[in-house]
């Protein structure tokens, strides 16, 4: 006899970095509430970082590994990128769920736990029924990543993770720790922890330069962690006696060697925007002021990576959309704000 469900579809939203026993309890609640469950995987389509080390495909594989063959047929995965814009993000989540529903009218429930202020996103879907769930244990993904990346012994790490994660996920993580990506994320994690001990968690003020010319934009490849080898805008921290524009021009010259007079650059300033999402940087609360300079149609000036930049390069605007998962922090979204690269 087929089990009666209260809803056609139950939605579970999270980053699942990684999928732990608290997440599993939420998933069980979702499976009990509806025949079909859609797991929305946040922070997808971006470069790996210490907070989001696993791709959406890897997270889907972790979750699937905890389910039996019959249950996995009831679960769908919907990857959604970060937009650092709440309205745009919630609209993208709704569209992703609708796509899984095939456009048909469905009774939909959102399953979630109001952990703290970071759970405000659960209130952005008033068109769905909300099914609150109690807290399952005292499990925190940040602490799990701390154990995973800071441990010195594989055996000790496995033991420490065993009480917080499904066994299938523990096995997945121990296998993943043999991949090159693990060493890179471990280095980044340790760098960020040391930076927080030395400098605190902000707020910090930074400046970035978006420089376009002849359908190209000037980018740098980061020399150091965090985001080592990722593509970024020339920029950095504002110095104590600098104005914002002055700081942006200084960082531009230091990291790329772009040899244009400040007065010439000021004349080509097309726009300035502030990017202040609390989660835009792992280093702490970092508020950046991005300055867009358009040099028009001209021969691309010679540039050379220096200071914090391992390389400086003019990148064709037509190639940027394919670089989202190789960009540092929210820099792709800053570029998109000025240049309208993607919907």
Task: Please give the structural blueprint.
Layout: E1 7-14, H1 21-33, E2 34-44, H2 56-65, H3 69-72, E3 75-81, H4 86-100, E4 108-112, E5 129-132, H5 141-150, H6 154-162, H7 167-176, H8 180-199, E6 204-213, E7 216-222, E8 231-232, E9 235-237, H9 244-256, H10 262-267, E10 269-275, E11 286-294, E12 309-316, H11 317-320, H12 331-339
Parallel strand pairs: 1-2, 1-4, 2-3, 4-5, 6-11
Antiparallel strand pairs: 6-7, 6-9, 7-8, 7-12, 10-11
Helix pairs in contact: 5-8, 6-7
Write structural notes for this entry.
With 343 residues, this protein is an alpha/beta fold. The chain has 2 domains: 7-181, 3-Layer(aba) Sandwich (Rossmann fold), CATH 3.40.50; 204-339, Nucleoside Triphosphate Pyrophosphohydrolase (Alpha-Beta Complex), CATH 3.90.79.10. It has 12 helices and 12 strands. It has helices spanning 21-33, 56-65, 69-72, 86-100, 141-150, 154-162, 167-176, 180-199, 244-256, 262-267, 317-320, 331-339, and strands at 7-14, 34-44, 75-81, 108-112, 129-132, 204-213, 216-222, 231-232, 235-237, 269-275, 286-294, 309-316. Strands 6, 7, 8, 9, 10, 11 and 12 form a 7-stranded mixed beta sheet that branches. Strands 3-2-1-4-5 form a 5-stranded parallel beta sheet, with helices on both faces. Helix 5 (141-150) packs across helix 8 and helix 6 (154-162) packs antiparallel against helix 7 (167-176). The protein is globular. The N and C termini lie far apart (45 Å). The mean pLDDT is 93.
